[in-house]
Specification:
The chain has about 120 residues and is of the alpha+beta class. The chain has two domains: about 50 residues, no CATH class; about 55 residues. Helices cover about 50% and strands about 15% of the residues. It contains three helices and five strands; from the N terminus they run ββαβββαα. The strands form two sheets. It has a three-stranded antiparallel sheet with strand order 2-3-5. It has a two-stranded antiparallel ribbon with strand order 1-4. Helix 2 runs antiparallel to helix 3. The longest helix is centred in the middle third of the chain and has 45 residues. The protein is elongated, with a radius of gyration of 26 Å.
Length: about 120
């Protein structure tokens, strides 16, 4: 599901009079979303009320999760570049030998076509 926008609103004290949960004074509203399995369908999720502390916790935890995703992507890119370097070196050595090892060149080509899991 793709969410187009998120908005925050601090509820005024007048709206919180008589409310059983007055601490939940931050309204988190989501924009229209389009479910991926239905063409042209638009759903508007209900808004959520949370406390300011929950909002801060949500911000911190989402930042940590995004940081972990970025770090994992960087590790994968480094591993891919290292593997690509190994393939390049193996191919260069085979070509410079003037009698190329056909099976080695085939493995290099297969690795470039289908990177799959990285092996060291």
């Amino acid at each position: 599901m793709l969410i187009s926008r998120i908005s925050l609103r601090l509820l005024p004290s007048e709206e919180l009079v008589g409310d059983p949960f007055p601490d939940a004074c931050v309204q988190l509203a989501f924009g229209p979303a389009r479910p991926s399995d239905e063409v042209g369908a638009v759903a508007v999720p209900e808004s959520v009320r949370i406390t300011p502390a929950d909002l801060v916790r949500l911000r911190v935890e989402s930042g940590l999760a995004l940081g972990e995703i970025r770090a994992e992507m960087q590790r994968a890119e480094i591993a891919w570049r290292q593997q690509l370097g190994h393939w390049y070196d193996d191919g260069r050595v085979a070509v410079e030998a003037r009698a190329p090892d056909i099976s080695l060149l085939q493995r290099v080509l297969d690795g470039l076509r289908n990177p799959g899991p990285v092996s060291t």
